[in-house]
Amino acid sequence: MERLTPQRIIRASFATEESVYGVILVAGLIVVSGSHGATAISVFWTVLITVVVFWLAHLYAGTVAGHGIAEGEVVGLGDAFFAAFRHSLGLLFSAAIPCLILLFGATDVINDTVTIWLALWTCVAVLAVLGFIAFTRRHAPWYMRIIGAITTAGFGLVMIVAKAFVH
User: Under a CB-based contact definition with an 8 Å cutoff, are residues 46 and 33 in contact?
Assistant: First the structure.
């Protein structure tokens, strides 16, 4: 079994499908829970609790799916758990920056409405960075990295449009 170091965990969990999915989930939660005069703290708790439950479900499903025989080798429960843990961390990490911003609103440093919009726009920025990193890892030319960043950020922009219509 490969040794889990902080560097390996971050590399394996950043700019993965789980992290992109997690940011889109967070953006959707902000859109839905941040409507109609919600406070930043209520949106924070909704996002945090939902992301943790999704992460735990993803971790459980990955452990169950990975346990058993894979490519002719027996995969023990512990190995399956650690592989699923490392693989699913992006979903959990994806909520960190938007939740931090929502906490600023919860402490009245920033107005609740501004905080919710700022957290949502931050999701778009994080998606752009994830897209850029993903294309950089594949040694794509600079213009494909930009296209990848814009395309990935586009999912967050869809959430912005949804928020405009929901609000």
Answer: yes
